[in-house]
Write a structure and sequence with these properties.
7 strands, alpha+beta, about 25% strand, RidA family protein, two-stranded antiparallel ribbon
Length: about 160
């Protein structure tokens, strides 16, 4: 892990670090068919989050065909911000969130093979914002397609600290 990732995570609160990065947690819109999170015991299950910003999906297509790697990485950062917003809904404040596991789905061509590079963008953001509480177990997989033709979807399991 780079020194800049670890040193940034050792200062201020998670909310301050998020703001320093020029980011803010979005407001999540209610959905009549599912909830953004469900708590069972000490575990908080975050529904799959797409890269929406202000109600708009930021990109569509298949990575490796319609979407470039760096664009997919940026979309993963937006999706993980939405997942963090759901976690904050569950625990009340960003400093209480600990990520346990993250599952990153990348709609990609069969020969793409760089799903982990897309997922790394989300992982890096979690560590920059949450420090050690952002380190997590992770799976990144390629899929044939995702809802509304999104290139990326992120699902998480977290807990409160």
């Amino acid at each position: 892990m780079s020194q800049s990732v670890t040193s940034a995570a050792n200062t201020d609160s998670a909310s301050d670090r998020l703001q320093t990065l020029g980011l803010a947690l979005p407001e999540l819109r209610d959905n009549p068919y599912y909830v953004h999170h469900r708590t069972v015991g000490s575990s908080i299950y975050i529904s799959g989050q797409l890269p929406y910003k202000d109600g708009w999906l930021l990109g569509q297509g298949i990575v490796g065909r319609d979407v470039e790697l760096e664009t997919a990485r940026e979309l993963a950062r937006h999706a993980v911000l939405n997942a963090l917003a759901a976690a904050v809904q569950a625990v009340g404040e960003l400093d209480r969130v600990r990520i346990v596991q993250m599952l990153v789905f990348v709609a990609s061509t069969p020969d793409f093979g760089e799903q982990s590079q897309v997922a790394n963008a989300a992982s890096e953001l979690l560590i920059k914002v949450l420090g050690e509480n952002g380190r997590h177990a992770r799976t990144a997989i390629g899929v044939a397609g995702l809802p509304v033709n999104s290139p990326v979807e992120i699902q998480m399991v977290c807990t409160a600290v």
